[in-house]
Amino acid sequence: MNLNIDMLQQKSADIAHSRKMLDKYGSMPRDKFLADETVVSAAKYQLLIGIEAAQNICNHLAARVAKRAPVSYGDCYKILNEEGLIDKGLAGRMAKMAKFQNLLVYNYGNIDIITGGDLDEFFD
What we know:
Elements: H1 5-26, H2 30-35, H3 37-66, H4 73-82, H5 88-106
């Protein structure tokens, strides 16, 4: 098994930075957050960065440890669960985040940030 430690560390740092920024946005009063389109856009971007970094880590581990190629973004986390690298609950949450990333990228107009509308399937 030949892991790319530099890539794993960089992607982990990307996740940590995105989380730090999202925590900052999350501490804002809801009405102030929703009223500022720039902040809402920045939060969406940080979600994309964090989710993409996690996906990169997942794909790398699936290929190097499990010697398997996922058939979908969500499948990657299933593979890591089957290999005993992450538990089933985390695998399910990360698969939902992979779907959410696709919503952010391809269906951004359908995201109702005020009511949460179509987001229920992504967040428990």
